[in-house]
Amino acid sequence: MIIASRTASAVYDINVFGLSVTFLLVALAAILTLVMRLGIAKSMIWSTLRSLLQLLAMGYIIKYVIEANDARIVLALVFFMVIAAVQITITRADGIPRGLAMPVLLTLMISVLIVDGVVSELIIKPSPWYAPQILIPVTGMMLGNLVAAIAVAMSRFFSDMKARQYEVEVYLSMGATPFEAAKPSIIASAKLGLIPTIAQLASSGIVLIPGMMAGQIMAGGDPLEAAKYQFVVLAALSSITIIGDTLIMMLIYRRCFTGLDQFEPRTA
Amino acid sequence: MSYFTAHALSCVFKQHSTQQSDTTLFSDLSFHLERGEIVDLTGPSGSGKSHVFMALALLDPHASAKLTLEGKDSSSFTPESWRRNVVYLPQRPVLTSDTVLDAILLPFDFSINRSVKGLGPQTAKPTAKQIRNELDELGLDDVELVRNPTTLSVGQQARVCLLRSLMLRPKVLLSDEVDAGLDSDSSEKVGAVLQSAADHTGMAVLRVRHRDSDGRASMILSLAHGRLSRREMA
Questions:
Q1: A199: buried, middle or exposed (CB in 10 Å: 19+, 13-18, 0-12)?
Q2: Nearest by CB to B112, which of A173, A175, A263?
């Protein structure tokens, strides 16, 4: 359990003084926005407080789960994270019709199964297999990326199909299947969802030290180990985003068509 | 037995709230077309002519109808193979490809046109030479095959769309105001091309037209207030 002892306490602890300095920095920025009349000072301070509480809560939960060291609790937390991610995806995607929770849930479940199966169990191979300090962060990073990609892709798909109404009808009128008629929108939407992930993959290491690698180095880990971990995570992240993105498109494109393969634009 | 029949043709917009009643655009219309026949459909704007066409091509989710083609019920076709035989040509030209040639060949990439089922040998993918000849027939001799369709006038685009539909060799063509933006000379050419396709392949044509009769239609149907009246031409 070398990993556990390393993550249990950071090399340089952040104490109450450190947290206060952070808030001073936020306060300084808030004053600046007040002077500039940007009107975001209140929401900025509120979000900062919220993020502190949420992160501390997450920290306590993971600490508890690590100490409990029970496969059932770990799997329950993973499941809870997936359910929460479904909710966030649905609220974040603008202009989508109702009733998409099931396809989103299915997509996230399959993606998490693949990622946890491949990254955790085949590549990292922790012992025990359910080691929460591996499984929980990996699941969290994957879900964070997937939620953003899927929400953007779904939102774009339904608005694009609506904008392409005449085109879709012309395709269908010449014998195209719903998939053939929806294909240009499917491709455009899936691509849009992938852009941030691909950009992150290409730029990491040049100017940007990705959060995970930075964290591992700051916590006293070997930078080369950190680099390997970060590469595995980034590559897995891109693959799973492509898989999840494709999956959600395949599961939802038929929502724009009736059982008789007629086009019916759908919006919220 | 008629070549193409339509019975109980209705289009109803259902309201989801209970306060409003359903809006019926038309209901219980019926007519039939014979092989190689040209029939015109007229009626004021908004009377639902396009919805009639969409309904006949099984494209309108608000419509219902009992349709037969060569004695076979539409329910015995897949929606795709029905639309492949009964082709709807919308009023608004849509050409998404980068060149005129690709635009015309687009439907030949659809799975229904790549598989053999339900297609005669005459619907093989046309060659560039055939397309060139047909464009000339339609008075589009100044439109190069490599032209980007967005650089064409609306009237030119409408004729390219017409040619694309004709290349599919449909059994019934539902042509929605193809000649709306055309001068009378070009309009005459469009009429002649449709006439020739009807004579040679037996294709039945239902046209929406706002022009004076060109003498090609054997019957004129007019749609107003949800009713269809017919006038036989000599």
A1: exposed
A2: A175
Of B80, B87, B92, the CB nearest to A261: B80
Average pLDDT value for residue range B193-208: 95
Amino acid of residue A141: M
Write down the CATH number for the domain with range B4-14+22-232: 3.40.50.300
For residues A44 and A33, is the Cβ–Cβ distance under 8 A? yes
Of A46, A100, A116, residue with least CA distance to A253: A100
Give the number of other Cβ atoms within 10 Å of residue A221's Cβ: 17
Paired strand residues for B61: none
Contact A177 B111 (CB under 8 A): yes
- The position carrying tokens 């009429």 is B191
pTM: 0.86
Cα B50 to Cα A228, B192, B212, B229, distances in angstroms: 61, 23, 19, 17
Are A18 and A106 found together in one domain?
no
Regarding whether A124 and A111 lie in a shared domain, the answer is yes
Q: How far is B11 from chain A (nearest CA, A)?
A: 14
Which B-chain residues 143-162 have CB contacts (< 8 A) with chain A? Answer: 161
- Residues A108-120 pLDDT 10s: 999 999 989 998 8
ipTM: 0.93
